[in-house]
Automatic annotation (TrEMBL):
SUPFAM superfamilies for this protein: Homeodomain-like, Regulatory protein AraC
Domain HTH araC/xylS-type: 184-281
Protein's UniProt name: AraC family transcriptional regulator
Organism: Enterococcus lemanii
UniProt signal peptide: none
Domain of life: Bacteria
Keywords attached to this entry: DNA-binding, Transcription, Transcription regulation
Amino acid sequence: MKKTLPNQAANTMLSNTFEIFHVKDEVKADKTLYHYHDFYEINCTLDGESIFYLDGKEYHLKPGSILFIHYNDLHRLVRQTTAKLERTYIFVTAEYLKKHTSSQSPLEQCFKAFGQPHSQVLDSDVNELRHYLKRFDEPPTQDFGADLLYHQAFIELMVFFNRLAIRQAKNVLPIETANSVLIQDLMIYVSNNLANDLSLDTVAQTFFHSKYYLSREFKRQTGFTFHQYVLKKRLLYSKQLLRKNKLATEVYLACGFRSYTHFLRSFKQEFDMTPKEFIKKESTFIQFEHH
């Protein structure tokens, strides 16, 4: 059902299917946080413009812009650049999409590229986008079959999104921001080197900057310490590997942890469950988390 809610509440999920939120509130930069969750997000801009951070890059969004955010990718609405900003968030579980998919039409395709997990940003015709979203302005009635037709409309919406992604229509390119290009490059470097040495001393040498300068700027621009960011990215990556390999004793080294004990302790602290418990829950239902 489409809902209207304050921005800070638009990042949790209660159902195991899909949820749609219509948001018009003002975005305050000091109130937005980098976050991730264990379900897919589709973020549609309907009116106004904004700057959005997604997986190490910043994008300029305008009416018709659509973000396909893969689960566990860090993201943040950095700031709005117009007086008003209207957008729609769609949260949907991988489990729901798999249940309604087919070999010919995999509904998770818009969250992948070359068969690999991948967030992306596309442009669309905003009037066409509003047409598809308008069907969710009201919840389904109690009439016989209304709930089925509501879910059918959502499948049609997902088909629209996937066809758009398959055409690769008007891909939105990340923007260059002078104040944060170094930190953006640093985030991308971390993502590409999770199994390697990411100590601040080593990274500072790679980027030809003082480690104190990098540490201060990273904290100022992201809200994370560099160590916190590296640890969070490694733990999120470990989830991806656990879903595939299901062997924590092999996963921890691939994620850059030098100690299995450290990996277990960090995983438990971040996700409030052990890797074994995570694998067990993944095999039965989707576990939602939000930070």
